[in-house]
Specification:
CATH topology of the largest domain: Dihydrodipicolinate Reductase, domain 2
Shape: globular
CATH class of the largest domain: Alpha Beta
Number of domains: 2
Number of strands: 14
Mean pLDDT: 96
Radius of gyration: 20 Å
Low-confidence stretches: none
Distance between the termini: 49 Å
Largest sheet: 8 strands, mixed
Structural class: alpha/beta
Order of helices and strands: EHEHEHEHEHEHEHHEEEEEEEHH
CATH architecture of the largest domain: 2-Layer Sandwich
Bound molecules: nicotinamide-adenine-dinucleotide
Strand order of the largest sheet: 8-9-10-7-11-12-13-14
Number of helices: 10
């Protein structure tokens, strides 16, 4: 399978390194790369020297003969590029958030229906071992019923974006659509749609939300979830949950080792073993991501869906758009206060 990768910045680097690792196991190669910054193109070409280089994503879509287009552009550019890629007949992987408006959700869904290509959204938390474990024990009711869950995802201020697009609410949708969407998407995936949401937020000096704390009610299950871009870029990245079941409490923290602990009601403490398909730490993307494993797994899953012609079950477009709609509702509440 030939892949065209658009956007070779922070996330694009994570993706092209994942394709490199996958190319040792699967019939896949990145044959075209696009980035409007020459230095990003040159860095990607060190990993994929044979790939044809383009400066504009739309040029790659028009000219490159590829089976798959993978879009790692700033979020405000996702929808137009994804629709053009689908209309070219390419299977399309789109980073999260899949888009930033309801109109674009509708346009994307329409293009998917019209073209029949396979589309997947990079809601990668669905592929993290600690979160897969949580969904499994929830589905199996291994520790009884879930009563409540507290989650947070805290990042240092995001300073690496092209033309500082993260700090423009019209380009990123703020911390709500960019970072917090990971957890709300996971909650939707595990529990379903919330019955009620209450949002509190703080803002950067510009007025754009930089911290959101949302309380959800799913029937009689409560969730309290924080997403934050700290004022300091030095704040270490943390993704945390504490899920309280009837028979045990599960705690997952990126900042603790081992990441995952189960505290049983009878007083025993367990660290379930997670068995990632691929485990490599690589910091060359220069963003707050080091572990390539979950990105490798989500891309591998998408390629298998294409190869085996099976539906994209785990993070299809219909799910990515529903998470955008919930995030937009939360952003609206945050901005109205
Ligand atoms: N899944 C995750 O864990 C995760 C983590 C970080 C970012 N993301 C998402 O990935 C996407 C990209 O984020 P990033 O951190 O890589 O941003 P970035 O700014 O580092 O990278 C975007 C790249 O796109 C390039 N670009 C801009 N316009 C272009 C165009 N028209 N044609 C070709 N190249 C163009 C820029 O030069 C830049 O290198 C965003 O949607 C972001 O929300 C996801």
């Amino acid at each position: 399978m030939k892949v065209g990768l658009i956007g070779c910045g922070g996330m694009g680097t994570t993706h092209y390194l994942s394709y490199k690792a996958l190319s040792e196991k699967m019939n896949v190669e990145v044959t075209a790369i696009a980035d409007c910054r020459q230095e990003c193109l040159d860095k990607a070409a060190e990993v994929w020297p044979e790939a044809t280089k383009y400066h504009l994503g739309m040029d790659l879509i028009k000219k490159a003969e590829v089976d798959v287009i993978d879009i790692c552009l700033p979020s405000y550019l996702h929808a137009d590029h994804a629709i053009a890629a689908m209309e070219k007949g390419c299977h399309t992987f789109i980073e999260k958030p899949v888009c930033l408006t309801k109109t674009d959700c509708d346009r994307l869904l329409e293009a998917e229906k019209k073209t029949g290509v396979k589309v997947m959204v990079g809601q990668v938390v669905r592929f993290f071992g600690e979160y897969k474990y949580l969904k499994k024990v929830y589905d199996e009711q291994k520790f009884g019923k879930l009563k409540s869950i507290v989650m947070n995802r805290v990042s240092g201020d995001v300073t690496w974006g092209y033309e500082d697009w993260f700090h423009d609410i019209n380009k990123s949708g703020s911390v709500v659509l960019d970072l917090h969407i990971h957890d709300l998407d996971f909650l939707r995936y595990m529990i379903g749609e919330p019955d009620e949401i209450t949002v509190n937020s703080t803002t950067f000096e510009s007025g754009m939300p930089n911290q959101v704390i949302t309380s959800y009610k799913f029937g009689d299950v409560f969730a309290n979830v924080e997403g934050s871009w700290d004022v300091s870029s030095k704040m270490p990245f943390e993704a945390y949950y504490r899920a309280c079941f009837e028979e045990a409490t599960i705690v997952s923290s990126r900042l603790h080792s081992p990441h995952l602990t189960v505290y049983h009601k009878n007083g025993t403490v367990e660290h379930p073993e997670l068995t990632p398909e691929y485990e490599v730490e690589n910091t060359s993307s220069n963003i707050n991501i080091a572990s390539l494993g979950p990105y490798y797994s989500e891309i591998k899953y998408f390629l298998e869906c294409i190869e085996e012609n099976k539906p994209v079950g785990i993070a299809p477009l219909s799910e990515g758009t529903k998470s955008v709609l919930l995030a937009l509702l939360e952003l609206e509440q945050a901005l109205s206060k």
